[in-house]
What we know:
single chain, Serine Threonine Protein Phosphatase 5, Tetratricopeptide repeat
Amino acid sequence: MIEEVPISELDPRQIKQLESADELTQRNPTYAREIYGAILTQRPGCLELRKKLRALQISSLQTNTKGLSGLLHKVTSAPFMFKSDDKNPEGNLAKAEGLIDKSPSNVVAHQMLAGAASSLGMNGTAVFAYETIQKLEPENLKNLKSLGSAYIEAGDTEMAIATGNSIKKINPNDGDAEEILKKASVAMAMNKGKWEESEDFRTQLKDEDEAQALEQASKNVNDAKSLEELIRQTYEKVTQEPANLNHYRQLSDYYQRYGDLQNAIAWIQEARKQEAGQGDVSLEEKERQLTAEYFDQSIETWEKALSENPDDQEAQASLEQTRVQKEEYQRTQLESLVQRYPNEFGYRYELGMLLFEKESYDDALPHFQLAQRNAKVRLDAVLHLGRCYSRKGFHDMAIEQFESLKNEIQVMDDRKKEAIYELGCCHESMGNQEKAIEEYKLVYSADISFRDVSDKINAFYESNS
């Protein structure tokens, strides 16, 4: 591993050399490049210096290629020069810099630099390498995906989201972009659990006061200390049987009951990294459920803060941001699930509902149409399909859907009331007042308190009295 350091942490003699070289970047750029390169060889972890060197190299490239119609920009060295040694990342790092110095526009050399930097834990350097490739080839999708992942590794979730959106502009249906957006949204929302960074997982448990409060609130466990002991025991099982997914699930469940959703999510994510967990849909569903719970918990916290102090602008901004993050996470997650599991029509219904709530009726329609193939959500899908038609003003098409529900559902439950009420609204919008009242009467006779049906019935009889 190589630690990344700023120029200020270099040897004083090296700093003095760099200051002298800085003064020569205009008059003698070649000499300045040599000084930069020599010191970078000694301190490869100095990202600040690497950026200075790269700027000078690219500046020289632009000067040298002037008038050649960018011909030299396309020139690369022989392919055999780019072979890297996976067992020697430090050697690859130095080799990549040597190739870049000869040809700053060489994309393969920058890729070699990024790979070596990642292996050495130099996340900032890896990001910089991919960013350089982005400047050379803005629509290189493979590089943009690598850049998005590198941003997540470096903890820059905002840039990861921006990169994911850039990919979607080029390819709107790119599944990898959805995955980047999902991971970045989750990381941004919860800043990840710290259990991975600690040798002693006990440091992640809540302090004693919070444990006492959780103990009183939790009805399904004996006490907080009991949960801590269960967590401790299960953690030991994970270390002994790291391939057993049940241990990860159990740890996640204990943390959820403990009230620590960050670690609950983190352990499910860890389970999904295991070979047996990579294709486990139940783990993916569990992570989605826990993340939604985390967002809801955060929203509730900010709403409570605002109720106590309505003028707290910071709390208001945080509440709005959390709501946006939740919506973005849900949308990207569901779009990814729909794309990967096209025959799981329950996901279609969930995505349709999300779009319906955003009043994106045209986008929601096809999802509700397909969702009817799932027996569990078929009736609700028909109801919302009719609502989409109704909101678009296609009242005759909406009536067909509501009529079918009215006739199919035998018991006057809430869903049937909704369908009949919506049916009345469609007739009313089309000017068929008598048909509308007949539908409203059916709901009124079953449930006088349903929506505003009482007001509609009263208004009708008053107008005719």
